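Appendix C: a fully annotated inverse folding record. The material below is reproduced so that readers can follow the format used throughout the book. The structure is listed first as tokens, followed by the designed sequence.
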């Protein structure tokens, strides 16, 4: 029998069962536990434990010492603490939008949390061309509550600085600094570029020094602007969804950074779903419907985010200077500018960089995949270069439509 005392090791399925029985007070003594490792992310191990007898289930997420995607990334398993603590905080700030957490173990670097198997990973559902009409309302509430309410606009400044310290996340931030802001924009050996896109990347991205300069400015903004407590990796693989419920998972990249980082990630990943629909569905009404649904969702997210942000500001701002005329509009404009820039960075890095997205890589026909990738890269560049000019949801959608026509 495995003893869980003072030594950390990465568990297998059998050890996860023993861990649940001996270390957690969750299952009944007569539980008949089964376990499956279901993680398909880039970093961690996710064990789903089921007690058929009493109809109960649980997730145990464990951080390993290296990333699953590549052992080049040696990462402190302390990221599991960050994930647990931020889920506790987000449960207060945005109740109902994150899984409940039951236990954190600092020796085994694992967290026990609610099983959300009645939901589907949003990327998978969108690739099956499903629609979620409540998503834009849910995700904008989540983002406004977690981003604005953790900023200096609302929080007492010393308390906020305490959170900045608590959620300093150097190793995971370094992954984003490298994979999002740096590597995609030069001919980095770690990039993985689809053959049909290579020439475009060489000429339009790596050969564009003006674009490189803008990405340098954005990288330094990301590293130095402690504006809001971000989720930090808010793509559609970090969202569990069903028709009436949205749950945001995997906040291990959380840290204090520019608020637009989260919003931009959501928008870019809806654009990946859009090109997936465009190039994997047969021409016809269903395809038009799916693409229109995604356009409308992008537009609604930007516009609802703005409305809810301004309303929450009026209701919750505590900072005296935040009440001066014109400041909230100025501040929101900077968030929209960063949203556009990050939309562009995420669109570029998932096409050129190491960590790709299935929405695009699953497009089987090579010409269609290259066409989809060029839309993402052209739009990405436009969002970065013209980032000051995106003020409404319609602005985001019309940039995408312009790039489709090229
Ligand atoms: C080495 S981790 C690669 C990517 O997976 C995560 O989900 C983040 O998006 C990261 O950039
Ligand atoms: Mg993740």
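Designed amino acids, in order:
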């Amino acid at each position: 029998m495995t003893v869980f005392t003072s030594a950390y090791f990465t568990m297998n399925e059998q050890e996860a069962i023993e861990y649940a029985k001996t270390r957690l007070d969750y299952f009944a003594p007569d539980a008949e536990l089964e376990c499956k490792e279901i993680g398909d992310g880039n970093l961690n191990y996710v064990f789903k434990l089921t007690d058929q007898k009493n109809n109960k289930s649980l997730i145990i997420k464990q951080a390993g010492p290296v990333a699953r995607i590549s052992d080049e990334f040696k990462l402190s398993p302390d990221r599991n603490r960050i994930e647990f603590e931020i889920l506790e905080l987000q449960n207060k700030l945005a109740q109902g939008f994150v899984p409940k957490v039951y236990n954190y173990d600092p020796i085994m670097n694992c967290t026990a949390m609610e099983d959300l198997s009645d939901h589907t990973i949003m990327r998978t559902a969108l690739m099956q061309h499903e629609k979620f009409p409540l998503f834009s309302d849910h995700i904008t509430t989540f983002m406004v509550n977690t981003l604005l309410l953790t900023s200096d606009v609302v929080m007492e400044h010393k308390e906020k600085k305490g959170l900045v310290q608590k959620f300093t996340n150097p190793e995971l931030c370094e992954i984003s600094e490298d994979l999002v802001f740096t590597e995609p924009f030069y001919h980095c050996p770690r990039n993985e570029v689809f053959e049909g896109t290579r020439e475009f990347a060489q000429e339009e991205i790596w050969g564009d020094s003006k674009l490189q300069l803008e990405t340098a400015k954005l990288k330094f903004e990301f590293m130095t602007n402690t504006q809001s407590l971000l989720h930090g990796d808010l793509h559609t693989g970090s969202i569990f969804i069903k028709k009436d419920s949205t749950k945001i998972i995997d906040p291990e990249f959380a840290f204090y950074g520019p608020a637009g980082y989260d919003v931009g990630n959501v928008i870019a990943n809806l654009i990946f779903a859009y090109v997936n629909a465009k190039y994997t569905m047969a021409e016809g009404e269903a395809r038009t419907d799916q693409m229109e649904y995604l356009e409308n969702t992008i537009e609604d997210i930007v516009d609802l985010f703005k409305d809810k942000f301004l309303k929450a500001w009026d209701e919750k701002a505590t900072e005296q200077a935040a009440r001066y005329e014109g400041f909230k509009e100025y501040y929101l404009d900077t968030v929209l500018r960063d949203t556009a820039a990050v939309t562009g960075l995420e669109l570029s890095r998932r096409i050129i960089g190491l960590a790709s997205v299935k929405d695009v890589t699953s497009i089987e026909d090579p010409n269609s995949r290259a066409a989809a990738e060029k839309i993402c890269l052209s739009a990405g560049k436009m969002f970065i270069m013209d980032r000051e000019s995106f003020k409404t949801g319609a602005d985001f959608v019309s940039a995408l439509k312009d790039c489709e026509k090229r």
